[in-house]
Write a structure and sequence with these properties.
79% of the residues lie in helices and 6% in strands. By secondary structure, the chain is mainly alpha-helical. The strands form two sheets. A two-stranded antiparallel sheet has the order 1-2. A two-stranded antiparallel sheet has the order 3-4. The protein starts with a helix and ends with a helix.
Length: 208
Amino acid sequence: MKLKFAAAAAIMMVSGVSLSFGLATPEKSVQPADKAAVVPAQEAQVKQAKDILSRLARQDGYMDEVLKILNTAKTKLTARDISALSLRLTMIQGNLDKVAVLNKTQFAETRPGLNLSAYTKTILSYSARINKKAARVGLLSAALGAKNGKTEMRDAVSSRGGEIRGKNITQLLEEQQAVKQLSADVKSFKSSAARLTAASKRLYIISK
């Protein structure tokens, strides 16, 4: 019986397990393999996080350009200028929506042990900053709308020659329409910026 027990124990050790008090327990030698598997996963996640950061940095720069135009009090924006701002915001919004999708993808793939918090914290910081700038754009575009309101149109109608500040009624109508479109685009943009910030926050929390 002792020989049979020793033979059984030897078979179990060859199979990669040890025999202790009649119970088979896994050898700890498999742990290094698990750790090695984390490395490529971490490299892939870091690469994706850097891509997200690069995209956000570009959008942050674009937002600065938009704010610079709206903040310039001396600049008299034409209908074409205002429409160009709308197009710029729509472009930035599309890029932010793509980043939000990337955030969700990384959220689904992130697991403990990948050490991504340094990257995801910066992603959240950029997202929050863009969100604040979106709010600022909203305030400035509202002020722009006030300047191109009904009072200016009324003054143009009642003025001699139907002009005010060198603009005729047709030009004022075009500006009002452009401002109205800008207001709608800003509202949509702010929603995308808020969703991005929320997605970035969830990603940061799970990566800690």
